[in-house]
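Archive record:
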Amino acid sequence: MARSAASDRIDRSISEQLAARTVRARRAKFFMAVLLVVIDVAMLFLGFVLGYYAREALPFFPQPEAQPPLLQFVPTVILHVGTIITLFYFNRLYHLKRTFSRFDQARNLVGVVTLGALLANGVQELVFRNTFLEFTYPRSLFFYVWFISLITTVLGRDFHRWLTLKLRRRGILTDNLLIVGTNNTARDVIKSIQRSPSLGYHIVGLVNGQQKASGKILGLPILGDYPDLPNIIDQYHIAQVIIVVPQTRGDEIVELVTLCHRGNVDVKVFPDILAYVAGDLNVDDLGGTPLLTVRDIALRGWRLSFKRGLDIFGALVGIIFLSPLMLLTAFAIWRYDKGNVFFIQERMGLDGRPFPMVKFRSMRMDADKIANWTVENDPRITPIGRTMRKTNWDEIPQLFNVLLGHMSLVGPRPEQTEHVLRLRQKVPRYMERHREKAGMTGWAQIHGLRGDTSIEERVTYDLWYVENWSLWLDIKIILRTIIQTLTMRSRNAY
């Protein structure tokens, strides 16, 4: 009885701590939501004011003899800010996802701010006409205000994002999370969350579905089994539930989701093996009979031609502008040990066809005789090679592969033929990544999945790219690669 009473006191103490964490997180979320609106309003006002003064300081357009005073534009400013804020709301820019790309956000902001500025200008002509507020809104001022408002709004959103991530890492802006499942997949999910505190999750524990169990997994307690879910959610003030029970019957999943529906709890379900193998499922019609297409790719027809045109243009521009630095690099490599400048190796590309991939040599001449897979602090790497690999400069000669059609600027990274033959027997859907040209950079690479990292995770990212290709996605990957390279923040680049 004494042990039971002590256990109850501990459970109550944990419950009270989690309740306090939940209250603090709710207040922090409300504050951040209000702050985001305040930042947007302030940045739009600032953009208008800076645009007004920039028109005089940077006269790119013909200037009037006397510019109207700033106070005369107050009604226009209010209409300008109000219209754009309203569009932000209806375009769900105040319903931020837990994780989002800064490039995607910037693209959305550019579109909405542009539309809002045009609408405000048009509404002003209708609303203010024949009133005491009527006056001419110079077109040149409109362009200054529009352009600077884009910059200030994006900067304001970046500040809000930085503050959000900082609060999450400090444990202030976090949600109590429950993992349903104790299998290997659940462990992988837990490791991913623990590696990313910026996601804003506080994992409370796990629920085991097979039998009554106790103990810990990866330092997290097993709190009970499936029937205990309602009580666990209430007792531990759970805000998010992730169900990780692959290969479970559909009716069992429905039952689990039903058990988790308590208050405002968000429930997410990890996809089963069919969804993983099938990828994006599309429904086709065959004479009135629905069929599921489980193998589809986004790059077809004009998209394929457009991507090839972008590759040729990018490769030519890169070769022309970077050729002086490439010549200096070639001389430095030769000067170091009088060996070969380039490293040429057979890799597997589109449709499993091999091709000779060319790189600047970054290792000793006998590197292949020692090992095949590159690891961190690899002793085979030369001093100049270490710098090149850290900045991805050793990959630059692959521009010639792109120009010749062996590779693309963006795509799954090519692997050695012997690795491909081995991995396709072990990793589901591995060969699906070869339905597109190999790339100099890729979706997996900008997420740090290169070198001595998980092949399964890398394949998942590659397949997502293959099935969701778009021009904007390629541009975003290229920009992120350039930024990571210039700031030397390319993860696992060794």
Summary: Confidence is low (pLDDT under 50) at residues 1-7, 284-289, 291-296. The chain has three domains: 2-169, 175-270, 302-486. The first strand starts at residue 175 and ends at 180. Residues 413 and 438 are 5 Å apart (CA to CA).
